[in-house]
Each structure stands twice: as C-alpha cells, then as structure tokens.
What we know:
Layout: E1 2-9, E2 14-21, H1 24-30, E3 34-37, H2 46-53, E4 57-58, H3 65-76
Parallel strand pairs: 2-4
Antiparallel strand pairs: 1-2, 1-3
Amino acid sequence: MAKFLTCYDYGNGGIWRFIVADSARQIVTQYPELMVVDSPPQWMTQKIINRIHELIINIEDHENEFLTALIAEREKT
C-alpha cells in the first residue's frame, strides 16, 4: 500500500487528505468524488502538509468519518 494525496472539491474549496491504498485507481473507484494529485499544489505549505499527514486515512477504514460522509453524500443524489 502507498500514500496518496487526495482532494474533495466542494466548489468553494477542498478537503485534502492522504489516503493509504493499493493504488490511485482504487481510491477513485471506491470514492469517485476524490481527486488524486501527484504532488501538493504550490500554495500548500509544509505546515499544511504536516497537518494533513496527521489525518492519514486507510482506505479500508470503513468507520472513518470523512469516508462515510462521502458515501452518505453520494447516496443523497
């Protein structure tokens, strides 16, 4: 498994998280709402990256609040 930087773009901003998964494809297959990026955007400081590292999510964590919120939002539509 590897760590991937992801973004959930909600229109007026985004929620950034590192997700541990087998591949980027696994992430976008299970959570098509997420965008996987190759590298942090230029505006993202090391301090922000460090904070995101504190919130690393394993894709297998089906009780994770962020991932369950994505699924709940998807099911509304």
